[in-house]
Amino acid sequence: MQQALIEAKKAYLIGEVPIGAVVVKDNQIIGRGHNLREWLEDSTVHAEVVAIQEACRTLNSWRLIDCDLYVTIEPCLMCSGAIVNSRIHKVYFGAEDPKAGAVTSLYQTLSDQRLNHQVEVEHGLLGNEASHLMKSFFKAARKKRKLKK
Ligand SMILES: [Zn+2]
After folding, report:
1. Residues 6+ apart with CB under 8 A from 19
2. Which of 16, 21, 36, 147 has its Cα between 20 and 30 A from that of 43?
3. What average pLDDT score do residues 125-137 get?
4. How many folded domains does the chain comprise?
């Protein structure tokens, strides 16, 4: 999760919403990513998706069997879908996202028995650091907007 936080800080430094993720297999990081939505003007490049894409390239497979994903903030609906589709074994996330979270907050996508794959979940790991980073990002963004007016 420390590595996911490092990714989140990279996003922060380039003015992106600071969320970071890594995919781990056998104690090795095989994919990492941070949010790049503004940079690429692409609504789908969330941290989790970037990390999953890299992990798939590393393993040369769309199935991320026995892989775990660490992400600083609770995954959204799109990312939860990507996690289920890539057959990730377990997700660790830092802080909950009451407005868009699709793991515990708004939906429980990863444990939905109607889907053909369920993912184990653990949360709270470095959650304070992750949410602190988000809060200071949005605080700075609000300040910037005020200065523009
Ligand atoms: Zn997402």
Report:
1. 8, 11, 34, 35, 46, 47, 71, 72, 73, 134
2. 147
3. 95
4. 1
Given the residues 48, 54, 96, 122, the one annotated as active site: 48
Q: Is 38 a catalytic residue?
A: no
What is d(CA 68, CA 64) in angstroms, rounded to the nearest whole number?
8
- Is 56 marked as a binding-site residue? no
7 vs 71: CA distance, rounded Å? 9
Q: What is the CATH number of the domain that holds 109?
A: 3.40.140.10
- pTM of the full predicted structure? 0.95
Rg over CA atoms, the chain: 15
129 within a domain of the structure (yes/no): yes
Cα–ligand 1 centroid distance for 89 (angstroms): 18
Question: What is the tens place of the pLDDT at every residue in 19-64?
Answer: 999 999 999 999 999 999 999 999 999 999 999 999 999 999 999 9
Considering the domain boundaries, does residue 135 fall inside one? yes
Q: Which residues neighbour ligand 1 (ion) by CB within 5 Å?
A: 46, 76, 78-79
CA 97 and chain centroid, separation: 11
